[in-house]
Amino acid sequence: MKLSTVIIFCSLILGISSQNWGTFLREAGQGAKDMWRAYSDMREANYKGADKYFHARGNYDAAQRGPGGAWIAEKLSNARENSQRVTDLFKYGDSGHGVEDSRADQIANEHGRSGKDPNDFRPAGLPDKY
Q: In this model, does residue 76 exceed pLDDT 60?
């Protein structure tokens, strides 16, 4: 009974019909992989000034999967930025440290999710591999 309540609630919240659940969940799974790939590439590249590009790219790639990808990209991006604010609070106190960077990250996230070119944030000299 609880599972059916959760499914009905989620379908109302997410705005998807039961026929589209499989598609939505597949898109969300693929979108999560896209986000992970962008994060892994960012860590591997370790390139100064490339953070916003990888934020935009991960969100763009995930959103291209469809509504499920866009949904998971938004949830993961928000979770990342909110967790960063909490860790910054413990590390730096209530100094506002990282607030502007978090805002800039969210702008890049939305830029990518909305279908705009992530290369708008690409820094000069970043290897073509990325």
A: yes
